[in-house]
Amino acid sequence: MGDKLKGTTDNLVAPGIINYASVLRIPVKLDSNNWNSWSLFVQKGLASLDKEGHLTEKPPVPVTREWRIDDSGIQMALWNAMEPQVLSIAQNFLTVKEMWDHLSSSFSAKESLSHAYSVVQAYTRAEQGDLSFTDYFTRFSKFRDELRALFPPTTDLKVQEERNTKMDVMMFIAGLSPKYANARPLLLSNSNAISSVASTYHLLREMYGSDAPPTDISAMHTSTGILYSDQGHCRVGAFTEGEDGRIFGFSDADWAGCPFSRRSTTGYCVFVGGNLVSWKSKKQHTVSRSSAESEYRAMADVTSEMTWVRRLLKELGFVSNDLMRLYCDNQSAIHIAKNQVFHERTKHIEVDCHLIRDRIIGTKADPPSIQPVHVKTEFQLADIFTKPLRKTQIDFICNKLGMINIYAST
Question: Which SUPFAM superfamilies match (predicted)?
């Protein structure tokens, strides 16, 4: 115990134990908007007691009784300096450092949804009121510059999608009824859990309950980038040309891409003679335990599709004995497909394994019909059906898919 505390019995709750509730005095209570000033008071107060290590350092090994008592005392003192909405979050952590790290990432002005929300609210509600034109212009320009700093211009589709989702969440929270005002700080500080309007709604249901859940839009969220890409090429049509009748396909999967169910998204496209004839984007029925498993499920889907296309062409009189090439960018999935020995980790996808393996290795009744081929990710054409991409990649894939501007002058 430091010299500053010697002889002051008011600061002790027991011999050798500091009463941090009386020693660590923080003049403001933490809410969703004053993290910078509140955290500064906390850091300076603990530094004066030579206890700032509880904010930045991991617990000692082994944890001593003295350290545990100090950490608990500091934590209770900080709890006393929080608003109830913030306190409900802070009480979920065992140590001061865990609590501090979470609050810092949630409320720091640089990244938090709370700060972005306050800037957007200030910008959209800016009014002249009693201000002069000059003062109003200065104030409005400040809000505009802060908003542009938070959302700088970009051509990255993924960044645009995240930005639009963030704005949707903030507008949804801003439009909540006044009776949910107490929920706003909790929602804004829990930015990791509310990745979309749907997840914000589900969090509200957990807090307040509801008898009428809306339509499930989780699959819509997964395909946002794909729909955006299609809309961006609404003047584009598929161009076909005569080549040989070889069949080949591309398969890909966005592992655990759904933020709600963590199911993966399957995407594939099938070509006949260099012409795109079939494509698909769909959320998988079950959760995959690895990226290789999700890719393997996608390979099973495109294998079935390619087999069906070959049988259809055969019925129409177009017979080809060439192996159908299946392009995949996951080496592990290709190795599983080629390996004739089932591993215990693949038993839960054994049906898909048998399906693909029979087409690759062949059986006594049917010769091999599929040849798996590894392709680099940048040349994976099925990527456009599973995730948002950069504009340059979208243009490249659309060109390879045979999409041309049908209104362009010739």
Answer: DNA/RNA polymerases
d(CA 375, CA 275): 19
Residue 379 and residue 247 share a domain = yes
Same-domain status, 188 and 243: no
82 plus 119 within the same structural domain: no
Please tell me the distance from the alpha carbon of residue 369 to that of residue 302, in angstroms, as a whole number: 13
Does 265 share its domain with 304?
Answer: yes
In this prediction, residue 194 carries a pLDDT of 67
Q: What residue numbers bound the domain in which 190 lies?
A: 113-214
Weakest-pLDDT range from 186-190, 269-273, 372-376? 186-190
pTM summary value: 0.43
Q: What is the CATH number of the domain that holds 338?
A: 3.30.420.10
Same domain flag for 320 and 196: no
Contacts 24+ apart (CB under 8 A), 241-246: 241/274, 241/275, 241/402, 242/273, 243/273, 243/274, 243/275, 244/273, 244/274, 245/272, 245/273, 245/313, 245/318, 245/320, 246/272, 246/273, 246/274, 246/320, 246/322, 246/324, 246/325
Residues 217-254 as b/e (b if ≥16 CB within 10 A, e otherwise) read ebeebbbbbbebbeeeeeebeeeeeeeeeebbbbbbbb
Q: Is 230 contained in some domain?
A: no
Which tens digits make up the pLDDT trace of 182-204?
777 777 766 666 677 787 777 77
The answer to whether 52 and 43 have CB atoms below 8 angstroms apart is: yes
Beta carbons within 8 Å of 234's beta carbon, 6+ residues apart? none
Q: Is 220 within the bounds of a domain? A: no
The angle subtended at Cα 377 by Cα 372 and Cα 378, nearest 5°, is 125
Write the single-letter amino acid at 280. K
In terms of domains, do 98 and 123 share one?
no
Question: pLDDT grade, residue 266 (50/70/90)?
Answer: very high
* Lookup result for tokens 């909540």: 176
Helix axes 331-338, 291-315, angle to 10 degrees: 60
**Which residues, other chains included, contact 258 with Cβ-Cβ below 8 Å and sequence gap of 6+?**
218, 219, 221, 222, 264, 265, 283
Does residue 222 belong to any structural domain of this protein?
no
